[in-house]
Amino acid sequence: MNKFHIFLLYLLLLFGTFAFSETTYAQSSIVNPNKTYSYANMQKDIKKLEKVYPGLIKQEIIGKSEYGRNIYAVSLGKGESTVFINGSHHAREWITTNLTMNMIDKYAAAYKSNTGINGYNVKKILNDTTIWFVPMVNPDGVTLQQSGLKSFPAKDHARILKMNGGSNNFKRWKANGKGVDLNRQYSPNWKNLGGPKVPYYKNYNGPKVAAASETKAILSFIDKIDSEIAISYHSSGQIIFWKYQQTGSRYTQDAHYASKLSKITGYSLVKSKSFGGGFSDWFSTLEKKPAFTIEVSPAVGETHVPLRNYAKIWSQNASIGLYTAQEGFKLYDTRNNAASDKVTTQIKTYNKTAARLKNYYSTDITSESKLKVSRAHLSLYNKTNKEIKKQEKAIAKLPAKYRTKPNAALKTTKSYRDNSLAFMKAIQAGDDLIKTNKKLKDYLTAGKLNSATFTTYDKLVKQTITTENKIKIMFSKSVQKLATLKYVTPSRTNKKNTDYDIARYELLLDMEEQVDNRQYDEVKKNITKYKKLKSTHSYKKLETMFKNRLRAIEDQLHLLEPDVPTVPEQPTPLEDPEVPAPDPEVPKDGSDAK
Fold this sequence. Notes:
By secondary structure, the chain is an alpha/beta fold. It has helices spanning about 5-20, 40-50, 95-115, 120-130, 140-145, 155-165, 215-225, 250-265, 280-285, 310-315, 320-355, 355-365, 375-395, 405-445, 450-470, 475-515, 520-530, 540-560, and strands at about 55-65, 70-75, 80-85, 130-135, 230-235, 240, 270, 290-295. It has an eight-stranded mixed sheet with strand order 1-2-4-3-5-8-6-7, sandwiched between helices. It is elongated. The model is unreliable at about 5-25 and about 570-594 (pLDDT under 50).
């Protein structure tokens, strides 16, 4: 094999390595990170990524820079758990925008093709977790560092030059467009940071915490997304900051994550970080969640990282976003399972109290006299209903997949409440039925068959059906039986008696009309039918009224038709065999019967 063949073989091997290695091939299908990556490049690529990957990628404008440039957040994934990755807090560190935009592109492509990256199952991770990126926190500073004064208002040029020591070379620029160092704008230890007292190209803390519009946008956005872990990318030193006053289990947990990040990237860990003021200090201290500042390049002084370093940066960080998302979901899952278990335990504990309701609607109901709603019963019912509403609110705060266990426990609580409510509704309906039944009896006892009587009769019929239906859903069959005997049986009996009285009353009305119309044969038939009806009660005034009206009909019949033999007097109630009374329609004329 000659030197030419060896050279060709070398090219093939080199091409293969770059074509098939996820970790070394830094070029993406949409984002080109191997160039000076500007704010305009980012805007264009975000728009294109959102279009190519609908449902997987979306953009959001979370605020404006001091000079009015949009600050973009890009979400990647479909999960309810979230993690947060940002880049370019510092202007000259825009290589971190190249890195984060490349992550979005590469991860989305792997998701769509269902391929892995460095052993990570991209589709599963992004179905579980949404990664939120803010690729360029500081668009004004990046633009100034890359393009100089031409992209800024002429009236501000002198002031910007002054902040840069009079130099037109902005390669060292670190601050935002107004000379505030955005990674010295967060609250931890802010007063003790030191540094310049006026706006400057680097290290000016600002007039107060979160004074810069860019910082305000990040703080507001973090509050909205509730991220589990945060990664803040910077560019100088190939080191990882992770220790921000954590103690106990948090220290152990974060040390584990830091160790893994170090293993993936090959960067050294910085255990102590005393100066504070940075995003990661704030996230760890205030949010009390893991936060890491990753510096991606060897130190290059006061300028941007040369693009020749990018391929290695990508190979070292290609899977950091995926690892962060994977671990973020574990934290999210653990936290929500714990919250779900806590609510479930609270509900099960209360169920011991709620179970006492059963005594009131079942266990203690041994006779008709026990069919009542006591104050103690009502009080415990109201307490249980209040507890259910409280726990429903707690469950609603949980993500949907973590509601199953507490909902199952609450179902038991609700069964006690609902059975109790069914009992109380049946008792109320029954008590109302008793009142209506008594009212109807009072009318009949007084010998009244008028519109008020008929209205009460109709009400009794409807209430009887309602009460029967409510009794049917009472918890205990034995309680249902007692309730039927107490409420329904008496009303059914009275309805049957009233049906008989109404039937006789209607026959009397018919006969009176037939006498007036000289329909004597019809009168005779109806008299016979009338006397076959049997009374099962003894309302004396009502019976006297019926006898008087029948006698008047008979007298009129003899006067108008003398040959008609006298009709024997009606037998005393209960003497004749029982003949079921029809269910006639009763005229409601609004006046008392004669």
